[in-house]
Structure of Retrotransposon gag domain-containing protein:
Amino acid sequence: MGFVQDSDVKAGVILPEVEEENENDVEEGTVIALVMGQAGIAFWGTLTAEEKATHSGHIANFIDTIKSEIRKEPGIKIELPDDYEGDPAQILPWIRRMELYFLHKKLRDEVKMMTLALQKIKKGKGNCAQEWADMHIKTVLQYQVELRDWKTANGDQEPTTAQKAAFTNQPPFASWNTMANELLRFFQTTETQSKAIEKLNSIRQGTRDFEDYWMEFKVAATASQFDNAAIVNAFKETVNPGLGQKLVEMARLTISDLIQTWADRATEFERAKRDADC
């Protein structure tokens, strides 16, 4: 299947339709999240019904009281969090706010959860957060278009897990938890300049596509505050040797133009190689 067309996007292929919460229908998990946090959710989930009713007495009573108060006050809502804009110190709180929103809206569809979160990731230093999200949104779009086409061809029935696994296009992450862990790994590790420099020295393209490597390299390079010459040297050391040699053979350019030009040319090289292998 080819790239997603503009008409697919305009048709609202992937935008998750979140049903409005019945304001008098308060899910226990939402209250536990508000009162006890993620650790509380995990602990509460291990208890039997009897233990929940009796454990420390006041916990169950406190939760019941809050649920009762929420029902009395229908105006209480948990709003969709603000956009995440690449601040490493804010990534974990933002993830927690997204998870609380998912609980409140009773969202259980992993792809819808990931799609909604990706649409809330914007801007960032050097536009890195936006570019990271856009890269994965493209993958989600391709998956959703294939899912739509499959359902159209099969009487609008929902495919089984096995049938979805056979799709040519797959979601960018196996689950919301996988995506959340990748967000933490990708953004939180560049919280300080020293960590960014350490990361820049350890990044390797390996078996990854260049575009995936480039996004990680760009985040670390921006946070490292290295000058262009140092970033060019780091780039030559961390990109795959065969690809690096082709880049070295290019005509000399000014350093200010070199980094982005190399990125564009590297992507062209890899695409040409993939086409030749097909």
